[in-house]
Amino acid sequence: MIFKRLVPAAMFVAAFSLPAAVPAHAEADAESLVNALNAVFGAHDGVRAAHTHGFCVKGNFTPTAEAASLSKAPHFNSKTPVNLIGRFSMGGGNPAAPDFQKDNVRGIALHFDIGNGNTTDLLMISAPVFVAKDPDQFLSLLTAVATKDKEKIGAFFQANPNSTRQAQWLNARPVPASFATVNYWGIHAFTFTNAEGKTQVIKYKALPVAGEVGLTDEEAKAKDPDFYRPELAERLAKGPVQFTLTAILGEPGDPVDNPTELWPEDQRKSVTLGTISITGTEDDKTCDAGIFDPTLVVDGIEGPANDTIFPMRSAAYAVSFGRRAK
């Protein structure tokens, strides 16, 4: 199975003629965000600008009967398991990011093959919130961090307390013992439409069938910086790694345009959409041949209209892909 997602040629052209630095007060666009990520983490040839450290896996998705009641999307209505390619990763643009870093998100990106040349993607991280409400705030955050000036960085977070929520969430919890033993959330709100035309706003959450398992700070520090890959290989040798994919049902008043805002998850109903089964590792070249695009949805799923981070991710990933594909 290979990626069928193509990056527009115009984005490749733009990516090949980018300025080397980000002006201090630049308006955020895809190019300036990738430049800012490189300013923070360094520019590394042939790899992603974000979620750089990771590896490719394969598996399938089996929907529940309840999934079809929410969405007419093909992978939620399939009578047989849907093949997928996935990628586990650490956040940020450091290709050597240590797996034991507590305040860094873990990510899982999924590329569903729904047949007849059609695909759809789903991206989730190990925190229910992002670090910025919009591209301009994200650019300002990266620009401040790139200075390595503690006063400037502190001033940014003091002026933008919503950008501290992700790190607070992660630091309040143990380092995950495995990519297979941590919850993952979709940070964006989506609108599902079923066959009868009924709509429902949701957020995705994937729960590990093996349960949440964490490490003490001492246990984490004793680990190899790249311990997740061999740990998962050992786990897969015993059987599939599975997650229960759920839809948290939104209610009126829940924010749908700001990925730094938490939904009151413990006060919301959820519906089980199906089981994600990771059955083995895959050549990293398979994942590197394209991008995992959160905006690549199908009939029955609609992305958030006013969440400006959502479309910017697709554009930034395309610029990053253009650079690493040179």
UniProtKB/TrEMBL annotation:
Keywords: Heme, Iron, Metal-binding, Oxidoreductase, Peroxidase, Signal. The keyword Hydrolase does not apply. One of its GO terms (molecular function) is catalase activity. Transmembrane segments: none annotated. The keyword Metal-binding applies. Its cofactor is heme. Residues 1-26 form the signal peptide. Heme binds at residue 317. It holds the Pfam family Catalase. The active site is at 51. InterPro entries: Catalase, Catalase_core, Catalase_sf, Catalase_SrpA-type_pred. It is an enzyme of class 1 (oxidoreductase). GO terms for cellular component: cytoplasm. GO terms for biological process: hydrogen peroxide catabolic process; response to hydrogen peroxide. Residues 19-325 form the Catalase core domain. Its EC number is 1.11.1.-. Belongs to the catalase family. Has an organic peroxide-dependent peroxidase activity. This is Catalase-related peroxidase. It comes from Hyphomicrobium denitrificans (strain ATCC 51888 / DSM 1869 / NCIMB 11706 / TK 0415).
